[in-house]
Specification:
It holds the Pfam family DUF2884. Keywords: Signal. The protein is an alpha+beta fold. About 60% of the residues lie in helices and about 15% in strands.
Length: about 190
């Protein structure tokens, strides 16, 4: 039973951490630069949004918006939305790393259990199975947090697009399909 689940657990850890297996919805986490949906880049605490036909927009943690290297004036409410947008992206990164770690821990438990079984130690089989199931559930819960972050980031993006004209061209960086795909993959 455990041998049969090992490839699934290893694959699940990678797929859930990425929140998608499609090339249009890629997330790469853990290095110095993280990419979401080929349109959003996280680097050094800044979120850069790429949109066709316009210069990149950069949102920092303080809520400053720069487009083509020039700061865009914003009011307090807009600054708060920009801060929320950046914070959601940073939370997504942290949750993705946590999910990857949970997936690695699950895989390590599964490998240890398989090794124990191959060595002839069957007495702990039920306990090992329960531990692996619990660890796999931890991975799913961690992945669900990523999807919550995607939804939060999209909500901030949508509000920014209605309240800040300069942000309107970047309003399609995340779509409802991104949130739905993430939740679908996280629940599998």
């Amino acid at each position: 039973m455990i041998l049969r689940r090992l490839p699934c657990l290893l694959a699940m850890a990678g797929v859930i951490a990425a929140c998608s297996n499609s090339s249009n919805d890629t997330q790469v986490f853990g290095g110095h630069t993280d990419i979401i949906n080929h349109r959003i880049t996280l680097q050094d605490g800044q979120v850069t949004v790429h949109a066709e036909g316009v210069p990149d927009a950069v949102v920092d943690g303080s809520g400053k918006l720069s487009i083509d290297g020039r700061e865009v004036p914003v009011n307090d409410a807009q600054r708060a939305l920009l801060q929320r947008y950046n914070a959601s992206a940073q939370a997504m990164r942290a949750d993705a790393i946590a999910t990857g770690k949970a997936g690695a821990a699950t895989a390590a438990k599964a490998v240890g259990s398989v090794a124990s079984k191959l060595a002839g130690n069957d007495e702990d089989k039920a306990t090992a199975h329960d531990q692996i199931e619990a660890a796999a559930n931890d991975v799913k819960l961690a992945a669900a947090k990523i999807c919550d972050d995607v939804a939060s980031m999209k909500a901030a993006q949508d509000q920014l697009a209605t309240q800040l004209d300069a942000f309107k061209p970047y309003a399609s960086a995340l779509g409802e399909a991104n949130v739905e795909k993430c939740r679908e993959h996280a629940s599998n």
